[in-house]
Amino acid sequence: MNSKIIPMQNNLVLIYLFLIGLTFGSFFNVVGLRVPLKKSIVAPGSACPTCGHQLRAYELIPVLSYMIQKGKCRGCQSRISPIYPTMELITGILFATAPLVVGWSSELVLALTLISMFIIIIVSDIHYMIIPDKILIWFAGIFLLERIIWPLNPWWDNLIGACAGFTLLLIIALVSKGGMGFGDVKLYALLGFVLGFKLVLISFFLSTLYGAVLGGLAMLLRIVKRRQPIPFGPFIAAGTLSAYYWGSEMIELYIRFLNQGF
Fold first, then answer.
1. Count of the separate structural domains present in the chain
2. Can you give the pTM of this predicted structure?
3. What are the DSSP calls for 111-123, one per residue?
4. Collapsing DSSP states into helix, strand and coil, what is residue 131?
5. pLDDT in tens, 209-231
């Protein structure tokens, strides 16, 4: 009997996390759009950027309002960017699936914090090609507290990871002469502190791989033009979450492959 009750309780929690993720995703949209412009994230309320129509409560229901209004403003019927509901839905999915990967442990808190930071960064990077320092500073404080409570083993792996992430991206930023932004450098210093030395290297490898493959496909399909700047934030998010979730398994597989090869 208990074996049937526990999975049902877990499913209810996952549904709850999904709904919480949708709600937070809506808020993260606001933060990602306003912070780079140095605007308040509290006031004024959300409004249509075209006609200034103040959105009411029933127009702010994540994803659902967009679908009911068919992606248009109720005031002027102008098109609403699909990025907003997309980021809300992605946040909900990532919140709900995080415990399925990291389990119901303290690492779930860090996973949700990483997801939250990345959603804000993606929104900001897509719209402005900027990773705001203010966002990194806020999350640096949160991650510092979390890693004090739940440190890596050994604890100094945080410091080595931060140095490795910062140094690696700084070299690339200097060599590329603008190809890599300094926002990415500071972000990887923070990610190195959270992930540690090994996982931050895997994060960078996967982020670069995702960026090269998807960027190449985008050029082949003529979605973007050659030499057109592409926001790297989404690829960093995908690569880092992949490394955080499955990096240890990747390392074990690689070591096993080397041992079999020799």
1. 2
2. 0.90
3. HHHHHHHHHHHHH
4. coil
5. 999 898 888 888 877 777 777 88
